[in-house]
Amino acid sequence: MIRILSRLSTFYLDPPIKLCLALACTLQAAVLGLAVPWILKVVLDEGLNAQPHAHFFWLAGGLLLAVTLGRGLAIFGHQYLASALAYTMAYRLRNMLYDHIQHLSFADHDQTRTGELMSRTTADVEAVRLFFHFGLPTIINLLLTGAGTIVAMAWLDLRFALVALLSVPLFLGLAVGIATLLRPLQSRVQACTAELSVALQESLAGIRVVKAFAREPQQVAHVDRVAATLYEAYLRVTHVQALNLPLLTLLLSLAIALTLYVGGQRVIDGALPLGSLVAATGYLAQLAQPLRRLSWLTGMASRCHASGARLFEVLDTPPQVRERSKARELNRVEGAVHLKHVSFHYTDGVPVLRDVSFRAEPGTVTAFLGSTGSGKTTLAQLIPRFYDVSSGCITLDDVDIREVSLASLRRRIGLVMQDALLFSTTIRDNITYGLGGVSCEAITAAAKAARAHDFILQFPDGYDTWVGERGVTLSGGQRQRIAIARAFVRDPRVLILDDATSSVDMETEWLIQQALTELMAGRTTLIIAQRLRTLKLADTILVLEQGRIVQRGTHRELVERPGLYRRIYDLQLRDQDEADITLHRPLNPELAASLADRKVSS
Length: 602
Ligand SMILES: Nc1ncnc2c1ncn2[C@@H]1O[C@H](COP(=O)(O)OP(=O)(O)OP(=O)(O)O)[C@@H](O)[C@H]1O
Ligand SMILES: [Mg+2]
Known about the structure:
This protein is α/β, with parallel strands linked by helices. It has a domain at 2-315: Up-down Bundle (ABC transporter transmembrane region fold). Helices cover 66% and strands 10% of the residues. The chain is built from 21 helices and ten strands. Strands 6-7-8-3-9-10 form a six-stranded mixed β-sheet, with helices on both faces. A four-stranded antiparallel β-sheet has the order 2-1-4-5, covered by helices on one side. The longest helix is centred in the middle third of the chain and has 53 residues, at 216-268. The chain is elongated and about 120 Å long. Residues 582-602 have low confidence and may be disordered. It binds adenosine-5'-triphosphate and magnesium ion (MG). It is found in: Cell membrane. InterPro entries: AAA+_ATPase, ABC1_TM_dom, ABC1_TM_sf, ABC_transporter-like_ATP-bd, ABC_transporter-like_CS, P-loop_NTPase, Type_1_exporter. The chain crosses the membrane at residues 21-44, 56-76, 130-155, 161-182, 245-264. GO terms for molecular function: ABC-type oligopeptide transporter activity; ATP binding; ATP hydrolysis activity.
């Protein structure tokens, strides 16, 4: 617990000036708080027994008021500064966490769920903030008031101090016991909160699928189940916390009773003034306030500990794909991509790519073909280092891609992936995503080349049209063309295209095909192709089967040889030849549609 709290406190201790001021305010509030029972003692002992000064009670009243005002000001300063420090801490922690999550690799994200990470950046950071905002200042206040009380009571009578000192281990024992009971329960609360976050995130992100399959009742029942688990976890915490207050009150009452017993005897014997006894009970009552909060404090501390552990679990996860310390920048490239004996597995013992070697010369088109699950997307993802090869190596212009900085490598590579993901912003911002200072002309030129300009202009807001979350307000074909425009604007030397023309109608496919042909011109292109037209364009086709290259050559060469390519051609590609003839002529939508129907039914 101490290790995690001290690691967390490194986010809190800055700036030291604010921290010092906050501590000074806390100290002032504690000292002035201790002055109040002392003033009462003086009033009782001096004012009632002796002949008081004419203005004695006015002076005492004025002093009490001044002390209360001073204490109020100190509490204000302390609360303001404690809030500022805690919010700054949460801000830093959240930024650091998000920054780290952004730098994790695909492999790390494969193992964590989005909702879980969301819960860590929100609920867990919040639990830490609450402890440092309210819990830690209360502990400091408790320590200062406790030490001050013991000193003041010793000043009044050593026996009082002995009573106070004897009760300290009991209070601490209770606090530690409750904290020990609470810790696993709080961890469970945090885990259930994350589980709820995952359930909500997945069902909301997938709401279209939920509705399409009419699974709303099951989804509601699932979230209900997870929420009920969280509710039960909270109840268990509440049970333990509820035990704390009666036990504390009992201990406190015992301490007051003992003080009254010891002090009462001394007052009766005339060895102690009455004011001292009243002041001693006043000190104990004053100490009761922060002590009563011990249950709340232990709960907060164990929640902070559980959350801190979860935060450091993420922060301590090194990205699986890491940059070398002296990684150099990849500036100009020609675009020669070379894979040398590359093997890869996601999970140990389950190879996905086996001994893949090929060289794509600058400006050439290399197409990958293979059945589903044969490793095409995996292969494409190794080139921008989304994953690192398990063995072998990949070079770009004969430089191992592990030698260069990730940002500069990825800047040289344009990607249009299987599922073109857009952000909920304008079409313009989606096209220029991540690039500053792109002129309007360059954006329009990219959109025209991507055959997206015409449909963009049909929207009332043109390039400033807001696309919904993940681009849902656009059709699949429109999304793909925006993604192609995005690649155009970057003007990369190496292009990776994954199945870019699936799931669209034939006319859109034709437009996308034209856009891609334009985009590919003069660049090294690696394309995962299901379309005959793309395969015919390719300088080399690599046929993959279970992660191995089983055939390579041009379309002409491969179609004449018996083998997997020929089989795929006969089964899936041959009828595209007929559609091709149609589409190379000015498009006749009816004929195209009837060809599309034939394809679907076959
Ligand atoms: N993130 C991942 N973690 C673990 N295994 C994965 C992951 N992604 C893919 N795989 C597995 O790796 C194999 C190759 O998948 P890959 O996506 O590369 O196939 P593909 O050839 O692109 O298929 P498709 O034509 O359907 O897109 C599959 O068996 C798949 O289950
Ligand atoms: Mg794929």
